[in-house]
Amino acid sequence: MSNSERNLEGIRGWLVLIFIGLVITPIRIGLFLFQEYTALFKHGNWNVLTSPSSEFYHHLWAPLLVFESVGNLLLLILSLTVLYFFLHKSKYVPKLIIFWLTYGLIFVIIDFFFAEQIPLIADLSQDTESTKEVIRSFIAALIWIPYFLISKRVKATFIH
Description:
Helix content: over 70%
Structural class: mainly alpha
Distance between the termini: 8 Å
């Protein structure tokens, strides 16, 4: 390895931002799952949304909630896995990061369009949080996937 490659090696520069994202993501998802699903099951909201006798019932509520639960759990596990390999400077990190970002983008897009099929959600004109999440995931993928494909620091740090 040349001297200039050694200077690029390490979790510095833009890689610090990815590291911060990898630390924050499992915390954010964990809190989301705890808050949302505690309320969903503890307060009987599951029955309100999934019971045909309820005024809020829609046949897509149960599949949507299960899809979101499983998808978020997978995203949580994936982010922790990527973080582990990232900290160990594994050669698999670039592929794992690209997979993580791609999975996250596809997941939020499917979730967004799936949720929009439920009139109660579609009617919420203030549901900008879902739109923000799709945009955030798209921008993250747009920036970080090319970075992990062409960055000299990524190559020096993870691909030795």
